[in-house]
Amino acid sequence: MAKKAAKKTNTKSAKKHAAATKRDGLRMLIVEARYYEHIADALLRGATAALDAAGARYDRIAVPGALEIPAGIAMAVDAAARKRDPYDGVVALGCVISGETYHFEIVSNESARGLAELALTRQLPVGNGILTVENEPQAVARAGGNKGNKGEEAARTALAMIKLKRGLVGH
Predict the structure, then answer these.
(1) Into how many domains does the chain fold?
(2) Cα distances (Å, whole numbers) of residue 90 to 12, 26, 77, 125, 151
(3) Is residue 20 situated within a structural domain?
């Protein structure tokens, strides 16, 4: 019974949030690493579904791998600012699967550090949808499988951070 009540509240809250987002005319950026294309496609479906439900406009750019996501975001955000059409927030999507070398840890840690640095130094709402997993079945489970869709969660996180930022600055 408690689960049903919580779900109703979450649904009401999500609908209220979506209505507010539609009024605000949010412009979002999705940056996706295409290294594991089938995983990237699934994460993208989740992210775009959440952004569509919120009525947000979005642009997409692709980068080769997760390590390139922060640089891609910085380039796109700067280009949009120069055109006086800034992004309200960003959704980062990708997948890093552990291998036999230390490379996994470097890519996982540095992509996360880069996203955190962008969020902190630029006051940029970022949703981190970069999966860091041990194997492909774990990635599939988190990209629309039995563990949900982390792309959707990342988009919702970015939207929540935009709401927080706007509330703090009175926008």
Answers:
(1) 1
(2) 24, 11, 9, 6, 12
(3) no
